[in-house]
Amino acid sequence: MLTHCPACATTFRVTPEQLKARAGKVRCGKCQAVFNALDSLAEGSPELGTAPLPPSISEGTTENADSSIDLLLEPVTAAEAPPIEALALPDTATPEAVRDSGMAAGLIAARETTEIPGYNKWAEGAFTAPVSGSAPTARPVWPSVLAALLLLMALGGQIAHHYRAELAVTTPALRPLLESVCEALDCEIPLPRHVELVSIEASDLQVDPAQGGALTLSATLKNRAAYAQAWPLLEITLTDVQDNAVLRRVLQPGEYLPAKADPTLFPPNGEVAVRLWLETKEVTAAGYRLYVFYP
């Protein structure tokens, strides 16, 4: 069998054993190019096919440049080479015919992919055909933007509703708008309830003989905020000599506010004096605790 180098077109004589050694890969003895002898394989004339190899043809020498290609071919001499026409395949020759010729010569084992991982000459190009079908169209962005804006507006509305009292106090210009919105939503704007800005300035608990021995509680409450607040609740606890609670009561604003105080709001920076009489029958109190808080 004959093959030729695709780089320099030099013709070489090869045997099935030589091609099986490296799956058909050889090195040109003239230009040192590495090629696959099966790609340009052709059957020689009957005389050439049966004649022994001449001494001038080397069966292979090891090349350090590429350890996977150790078959170096030497060109066929002019006396050994048949005419160029003898090397040509018929006009009707196809790649399948070349493949069948190699298979008939016993070269099928030389195409094992274990020698050349991932390469198969006969399947080359089978997976590179273009995929038919149109490219996916881009989706419009505006629906996502609109949904995000609606969510932001809903979140802003919830925050404004939750802190409507603080907004009405800190930004008086927004109060008319907040009132109109609350009227539409059937809600109200409550007064702020910042207990940390409400303090007990003074307090005292005494026995009042004029009231039949009842306890008299006196205290002064102050709103230290610069804005009006809701009235807090007042909790009084009577304790014994060991500071254990013996009596506790929570008073609503209507129960401790004096008659002259505005029951609707605690004025900004305002003070109110509280005076209460507590009946403690069968209870002996040695002390008391007084707290203000919002429910």
Task: Summarize, please.
The chain is α+β, with helices and mostly antiparallel strands. Helix content is 23%, strand content 22%.
Which helices and strands occur, and which strands form pairs?
Blueprint: E1 2-4, E2 11-13, H1 16-21, E3 25-28, E4 34-36, H2 46-50, E5 72-73, H3 84-87, H4 95-104, H5 142-162, H6 164-170, H7 175-184, E6 198-208, E7 214-223, E8 233-239, E9 245-251, H8 253-256, E10 271-278, E11 287-293
Parallel strand pairs: 3-5
Antiparallel strand pairs: 1-2, 3-4, 6-7, 7-10, 8-9, 8-11
Key phrases:
295 residues, alpha+beta, Immunoglobulin-like, 3 domains, 3-stranded mixed sheet, 3-stranded antiparallel sheet, Zinc-ribbon domain-containing protein, Znf/thioredoxin_put, DUF3426
